[in-house]
Amino acid sequence: MIRYRNLLLFLVLATLWGSAFMAINAGLKLAGIPPVLFAAVRYDIAGVLMLAYAAIVLDDPIPRGRGQWALVAVGSLLLIAAYHALLFVGESDPSVTSAAAAVIVSLSPILTTVFARVFLPEERLTVVGIVGLLLGLVGVIVLSDPNPDRLLTGAVVAKLLIFAAAAAFALGSVLTRRIDAEMPIESMEAWSMLGGALVMHLVSAGLGESPVGVDWFSPVALGSLLYLSVGASAVGFLIYFDLLDRLGPIEINLVSYVAPISAALAGWAFLTETPSETTAYGFLLIFLGFLLVKRRAIREELSGLRERRRGAGSSDD
Question: Which residues cross the membrane (predicted)?
Protein backbone atom coordinates (compact mmCIF):
# COMPACT_ATOMS: atom_id res chain seq x y z
CA MET A 1 0.00 0.00 0.00
CA ILE A 2 2.86 2.41 0.82
CA ARG A 3 4.40 1.75 -2.60
CA TYR A 4 1.14 2.63 -4.37
CA ARG A 5 0.71 5.69 -2.14
CA ASN A 6 4.17 6.97 -3.07
CA LEU A 7 3.55 6.30 -6.76
CA LEU A 8 0.22 8.14 -6.65
CA LEU A 9 1.75 11.14 -4.86
CA PHE A 10 4.67 11.15 -7.32
CA LEU A 11 2.27 11.30 -10.28
CA VAL A 12 0.17 14.00 -8.59
CA LEU A 13 3.30 16.09 -7.97
CA ALA A 14 4.52 15.65 -11.56
CA THR A 15 1.08 16.69 -12.80
CA LEU A 16 0.91 19.74 -10.52
CA TRP A 17 4.40 20.96 -11.36
CA GLY A 18 4.20 20.13 -15.05
CA SER A 19 0.84 21.79 -15.62
CA ALA A 20 2.10 24.82 -13.68
CA PHE A 21 4.04 25.84 -16.81
CA MET A 22 0.73 25.91 -18.69
CA ALA A 23 -0.87 28.01 -15.93
CA ILE A 24 2.04 30.48 -16.13
CA ASN A 25 1.63 30.77 -19.90
CA ALA A 26 -2.13 31.26 -19.52
CA GLY A 27 -1.71 34.10 -17.01
CA LEU A 28 1.00 35.77 -19.08
CA LYS A 29 -0.35 35.39 -22.59
CA LEU A 30 -4.13 35.19 -22.15
CA ALA A 31 -4.70 37.35 -19.06
CA GLY A 32 -1.83 39.75 -19.84
CA ILE A 33 -0.40 39.84 -16.32
CA PRO A 34 3.10 41.45 -16.18
CA PRO A 35 5.55 38.57 -15.59
CA VAL A 36 7.48 39.59 -12.45
CA LEU A 37 4.35 41.01 -10.83
CA PHE A 38 2.55 37.75 -11.64
CA ALA A 39 5.28 35.73 -9.91
CA ALA A 40 5.26 38.09 -6.90
CA VAL A 41 1.49 37.89 -6.36
CA ARG A 42 1.65 34.11 -6.73
CA TYR A 43 4.05 33.93 -3.79
CA ASP A 44 2.17 36.52 -1.76
CA ILE A 45 -0.68 34.02 -1.67
CA ALA A 46 1.44 30.87 -1.38
CA GLY A 47 3.62 32.41 1.36
CA VAL A 48 0.64 33.35 3.51
CA LEU A 49 -0.81 29.84 3.11
CA MET A 50 2.49 28.17 4.00
CA LEU A 51 3.04 30.45 7.00
CA ALA A 52 -0.44 29.59 8.28
CA TYR A 53 0.37 25.90 7.86
CA ALA A 54 3.74 26.33 9.61
CA ALA A 55 2.03 28.10 12.52
CA ILE A 56 -0.28 25.10 12.91
CA VAL A 57 2.31 22.30 12.74
CA LEU A 58 5.27 24.01 14.44
CA ASP A 59 5.69 25.29 17.98
CA ASP A 60 7.80 28.20 16.74
CA PRO A 61 7.54 29.05 13.02
CA ILE A 62 9.74 32.18 13.27
CA PRO A 63 13.41 31.86 12.17
CA ARG A 64 15.91 32.18 15.01
CA GLY A 65 19.59 33.03 14.77
CA ARG A 66 21.89 34.04 11.95
CA GLY A 67 21.99 30.58 10.36
CA GLN A 68 18.24 30.25 9.95
CA TRP A 69 17.90 33.75 8.56
CA ALA A 70 20.74 32.94 6.14
CA LEU A 71 18.72 29.96 4.91
CA VAL A 72 15.70 32.20 4.42
CA ALA A 73 17.82 34.78 2.57
CA VAL A 74 19.18 32.21 0.11
CA GLY A 75 15.72 30.72 -0.33
CA SER A 76 14.17 34.13 -0.92
CA LEU A 77 16.77 35.43 -3.37
CA LEU A 78 17.60 32.31 -5.40
CA LEU A 79 14.96 29.60 -4.95
CA ILE A 80 12.00 31.96 -5.15
CA ALA A 81 12.85 35.43 -6.54
CA ALA A 82 15.59 34.76 -9.12
CA TYR A 83 14.16 31.45 -10.30
CA HIS A 84 10.58 32.62 -10.75
CA ALA A 85 11.30 36.12 -12.06
CA LEU A 86 13.58 34.71 -14.79
CA LEU A 87 11.19 31.85 -15.54
CA PHE A 88 8.12 34.07 -15.86
CA VAL A 89 9.95 36.62 -18.03
CA GLY A 90 11.26 33.82 -20.23
CA GLU A 91 7.83 32.22 -20.60
CA SER A 92 6.30 35.56 -21.59
CA ASP A 93 7.91 35.22 -25.02
CA PRO A 94 5.27 33.98 -27.52
CA SER A 95 7.61 31.30 -28.87
CA VAL A 96 8.10 29.51 -25.52
CA THR A 97 5.65 26.65 -25.01
CA SER A 98 4.85 25.08 -21.66
CA ALA A 99 6.70 21.88 -22.63
CA ALA A 100 9.84 23.73 -23.77
CA ALA A 101 10.05 25.66 -20.49
CA ALA A 102 9.56 22.46 -18.47
CA VAL A 103 12.29 20.66 -20.43
CA ILE A 104 14.83 23.46 -19.83
CA VAL A 105 13.99 23.53 -16.10
CA SER A 106 14.56 19.76 -16.00
CA LEU A 107 18.27 20.58 -16.32
CA SER A 108 18.22 21.68 -12.65
CA PRO A 109 19.28 18.30 -11.15
CA ILE A 110 22.35 18.23 -13.41
CA LEU A 111 23.27 21.83 -12.53
CA THR A 112 22.74 21.06 -8.84
CA THR A 113 25.37 18.32 -9.08
CA VAL A 114 27.78 20.69 -10.84
CA PHE A 115 27.37 23.43 -8.23
CA ALA A 116 27.84 20.84 -5.47
CA ARG A 117 31.19 19.93 -7.01
CA VAL A 118 32.19 23.60 -7.13
CA PHE A 119 31.39 24.22 -3.47
CA LEU A 120 32.81 20.87 -2.37
CA PRO A 121 36.34 20.94 -3.88
CA GLU A 122 37.10 17.40 -2.70
CA GLU A 123 34.46 16.13 -5.12
CA ARG A 124 35.14 16.26 -8.84
CA LEU A 125 33.11 15.37 -11.91
CA THR A 126 34.56 12.39 -13.75
CA VAL A 127 35.00 12.35 -17.51
CA VAL A 128 31.64 10.58 -17.85
CA GLY A 129 30.04 13.19 -15.60
CA ILE A 130 31.44 16.00 -17.73
CA VAL A 131 30.02 14.30 -20.82
CA GLY A 132 26.64 14.16 -19.06
CA LEU A 133 26.82 17.87 -18.25
CA LEU A 134 27.72 18.69 -21.86
CA LEU A 135 24.82 16.57 -23.12
CA GLY A 136 22.45 18.55 -20.92
CA LEU A 137 23.82 21.85 -22.21
CA VAL A 138 23.55 20.63 -25.80
CA GLY A 139 19.91 19.80 -25.05
CA VAL A 140 19.29 23.42 -24.08
CA ILE A 141 21.08 24.61 -27.23
CA VAL A 142 18.91 22.33 -29.35
CA LEU A 143 15.82 23.74 -27.67
CA SER A 144 17.00 27.31 -28.24
CA ASP A 145 17.61 26.61 -31.95
CA PRO A 146 20.33 29.32 -32.13
CA ASN A 147 20.43 30.13 -35.84
CA PRO A 148 23.40 32.54 -36.29
CA ASP A 149 21.16 34.93 -38.21
CA ARG A 150 18.83 35.35 -35.22
CA LEU A 151 21.08 34.62 -32.26
CA LEU A 152 19.79 37.56 -30.22
CA THR A 153 16.11 37.21 -31.10
CA GLY A 154 13.52 37.05 -28.35
CA ALA A 155 13.03 33.29 -28.69
CA VAL A 156 16.69 32.45 -27.96
CA VAL A 157 17.05 35.05 -25.21
CA ALA A 158 13.83 33.83 -23.55
CA LYS A 159 15.07 30.24 -23.39
CA LEU A 160 18.44 31.38 -22.05
CA LEU A 161 16.57 33.27 -19.30
CA ILE A 162 14.79 30.04 -18.36
CA PHE A 163 18.16 28.28 -18.32
CA ALA A 164 19.42 31.01 -15.95
CA ALA A 165 16.34 30.38 -13.79
CA ALA A 166 17.23 26.68 -13.56
CA ALA A 167 20.81 27.61 -12.64
CA ALA A 168 19.61 29.99 -9.90
CA PHE A 169 17.43 27.26 -8.40
CA ALA A 170 20.28 24.72 -8.54
CA LEU A 171 22.72 27.14 -6.88
CA GLY A 172 20.19 27.97 -4.17
CA SER A 173 19.62 24.27 -3.47
CA VAL A 174 23.35 23.71 -2.95
CA LEU A 175 23.89 26.82 -0.81
CA THR A 176 21.04 25.92 1.54
CA ARG A 177 22.76 22.60 2.18
CA ARG A 178 26.07 24.37 2.79
CA ILE A 179 24.71 26.64 5.52
CA ASP A 180 25.32 25.16 8.94
CA ALA A 181 21.83 25.54 10.38
CA GLU A 182 18.81 23.36 11.05
CA MET A 183 15.35 24.70 10.28
CA PRO A 184 11.92 23.11 9.84
CA ILE A 185 11.19 22.97 6.13
CA GLU A 186 7.67 24.37 6.61
CA SER A 187 9.08 27.50 8.22
CA MET A 188 11.88 27.91 5.68
CA GLU A 189 9.48 27.55 2.74
CA ALA A 190 6.97 30.03 4.18
CA TRP A 191 9.48 32.78 4.96
CA SER A 192 11.39 32.21 1.71
CA MET A 193 8.17 32.57 -0.27
CA LEU A 194 7.25 35.80 1.49
CA GLY A 195 10.79 37.19 1.22
CA GLY A 196 11.00 36.20 -2.45
CA ALA A 197 7.63 37.82 -3.15
CA LEU A 198 8.87 41.08 -1.57
CA VAL A 199 12.03 41.03 -3.71
CA MET A 200 9.98 40.41 -6.85
CA HIS A 201 7.59 43.26 -6.01
CA LEU A 202 10.62 45.58 -5.82
CA VAL A 203 11.98 44.27 -9.13
CA SER A 204 8.54 44.58 -10.71
CA ALA A 205 8.26 48.22 -9.61
CA GLY A 206 11.77 48.89 -10.93
CA LEU A 207 10.76 47.46 -14.30
CA GLY A 208 7.74 49.76 -14.40
CA GLU A 209 5.18 46.95 -14.27
CA SER A 210 1.74 48.02 -13.13
CA PRO A 211 -1.29 46.09 -11.85
CA VAL A 212 -3.52 48.71 -13.45
CA GLY A 213 -5.26 47.42 -16.53
CA VAL A 214 -5.11 43.76 -15.49
CA ASP A 215 -8.47 42.09 -14.90
CA TRP A 216 -7.36 40.13 -11.83
CA PHE A 217 -10.80 38.56 -11.38
CA SER A 218 -11.18 37.23 -14.91
CA PRO A 219 -11.49 33.41 -14.99
CA VAL A 220 -8.07 32.99 -16.60
CA ALA A 221 -6.18 35.37 -14.27
CA LEU A 222 -7.87 34.14 -11.09
CA GLY A 223 -7.66 30.50 -12.12
CA SER A 224 -3.96 30.75 -12.98
CA LEU A 225 -3.10 32.49 -9.72
CA LEU A 226 -5.05 30.07 -7.53
CA TYR A 227 -3.71 27.01 -9.33
CA LEU A 228 -0.11 28.20 -9.05
CA SER A 229 -0.41 29.46 -5.46
CA VAL A 230 -2.49 26.70 -3.89
CA GLY A 231 -1.91 23.71 -6.15
CA ALA A 232 1.62 23.96 -7.53
CA SER A 233 3.17 25.87 -4.60
CA ALA A 234 1.44 25.09 -1.29
CA VAL A 235 0.18 21.55 -2.01
CA GLY A 236 3.04 20.73 -4.39
CA PHE A 237 5.81 21.57 -1.93
CA LEU A 238 4.13 19.62 0.87
CA ILE A 239 3.96 16.53 -1.35
CA TYR A 240 7.54 17.10 -2.51
CA PHE A 241 9.04 17.15 0.97
CA ASP A 242 6.93 14.19 2.08
CA LEU A 243 8.25 12.16 -0.88
CA LEU A 244 11.79 13.47 -0.41
CA ASP A 245 11.77 11.94 3.06
CA ARG A 246 10.30 8.64 1.80
CA LEU A 247 12.04 8.19 -1.55
CA GLY A 248 15.28 10.13 -1.28
CA PRO A 249 16.73 12.77 -3.64
CA ILE A 250 17.44 10.49 -6.64
CA GLU A 251 13.92 9.17 -7.12
CA ILE A 252 12.27 12.53 -6.37
CA ASN A 253 14.56 14.22 -8.93
CA LEU A 254 12.80 12.15 -11.58
CA VAL A 255 9.80 14.46 -11.14
CA SER A 256 11.74 16.93 -13.30
CA TYR A 257 11.66 14.41 -16.14
CA VAL A 258 7.99 13.45 -15.84
CA ALA A 259 6.80 17.07 -15.48
CA PRO A 260 7.51 17.99 -19.15
CA ILE A 261 5.04 15.30 -20.23
CA SER A 262 2.36 16.86 -18.03
CA ALA A 263 3.34 20.32 -19.28
CA ALA A 264 3.03 19.22 -22.91
CA LEU A 265 -0.38 17.61 -22.35
CA ALA A 266 -1.72 20.60 -20.38
CA GLY A 267 -0.37 23.06 -22.94
CA TRP A 268 -1.98 21.09 -25.76
CA ALA A 269 -5.33 20.70 -23.94
CA PHE A 270 -5.76 24.26 -22.66
CA LEU A 271 -3.58 26.45 -24.91
CA THR A 272 -3.51 24.38 -28.13
CA GLU A 273 0.30 24.30 -27.93
CA THR A 274 2.03 21.72 -30.10
CA PRO A 275 5.47 20.61 -28.88
CA SER A 276 8.10 20.70 -31.63
CA GLU A 277 10.60 18.00 -32.55
CA THR A 278 13.39 20.09 -31.04
CA THR A 279 11.57 19.97 -27.70
CA ALA A 280 11.61 16.17 -27.80
CA TYR A 281 15.27 16.05 -28.85
CA GLY A 282 16.26 18.56 -26.17
CA PHE A 283 14.42 16.55 -23.52
CA LEU A 284 16.15 13.32 -24.58
CA LEU A 285 19.61 14.90 -24.42
CA ILE A 286 18.99 16.46 -21.01
CA PHE A 287 17.64 13.19 -19.61
CA LEU A 288 20.64 11.26 -20.94
CA GLY A 289 22.88 13.86 -19.32
CA PHE A 290 21.07 13.32 -16.01
CA LEU A 291 21.61 9.55 -16.23
CA LEU A 292 25.35 10.02 -16.82
CA VAL A 293 25.87 12.64 -14.09
CA LYS A 294 23.83 10.68 -11.54
CA ARG A 295 24.84 7.18 -12.66
CA ARG A 296 26.59 6.21 -9.40
CA ALA A 297 23.79 7.47 -7.18
CA ILE A 298 21.22 5.74 -9.40
CA ARG A 299 23.20 2.49 -9.25
CA GLU A 300 23.38 2.69 -5.45
CA GLU A 301 19.68 3.51 -5.24
CA LEU A 302 18.74 0.54 -7.43
CA SER A 303 21.02 -1.75 -5.41
CA GLY A 304 19.42 -0.58 -2.15
CA LEU A 305 15.95 -1.03 -3.63
CA ARG A 306 16.75 -4.65 -4.59
CA GLU A 307 18.08 -5.36 -1.10
CA ARG A 308 14.95 -3.90 0.51
CA ARG A 309 12.75 -6.05 -1.72
CA ARG A 310 14.75 -9.18 -0.88
CA GLY A 311 14.47 -8.32 2.80
CA ALA A 312 10.71 -7.83 2.49
CA GLY A 313 10.41 -11.15 0.63
CA SER A 314 12.37 -13.08 3.26
CA SER A 315 10.32 -11.57 6.09
CA ASP A 316 7.15 -12.75 4.35
CA ASP A 317 8.52 -16.30 4.43
Answer: 32-57, 69-90, 96-118, 125-144, 156-176, 188-208, 220-240, 252-272, 278-293
DSSP letter at 180 equals -
- Residues 42-47 have a mean pLDDT of 96
Classify 153 as helix, strand or coil.
coil
Asked if 22 and 270 touch (Cβ cutoff 8 Å), the reply is yes
Q: Are 174 and 109 in contact (CB under 8 A)?
A: no
- Using a 10 angstrom Cβ sphere, with 0-12 exposed, 13-18 middle and 19 or more buried, the burial of residue 235 is middle
Beta strands of the chain (E only): which ranges? Answer: none
SS3 content of the chain, % helix, strand, coil (to 5): 80, 0, 20
Classify residue 150 as exposed, middle or buried by CB count within 10 Å of its CB (0-12, 13-18, 19+). Answer: exposed
Q: Which of 112-121, 137-146, 147-156, 230-239 has the lowest mean pLDDT?
A: 147-156
pLDDT recorded at residue 110: 79
Residues 6 or more apart whose CB falls under 8 angstroms from that of 72 comprise 63, 188, 191, 192, 195
Specify the pLDDT at position 288.
83
For the stretch 246-274, pLDDT in tens is 766 666 777 777 888 888 889 999 999 88
How many C-beta atoms surround the C-beta of residue 305 within 10 A?
A: 12
- Cα distance between residue 86 and residue 81, in whole Å: 8
Residue 296 C-beta-side C-alpha neighbours within 13 Å: 6
Q: 314: pLDDT confidence band, cut at 50, 70 and 90?
A: low
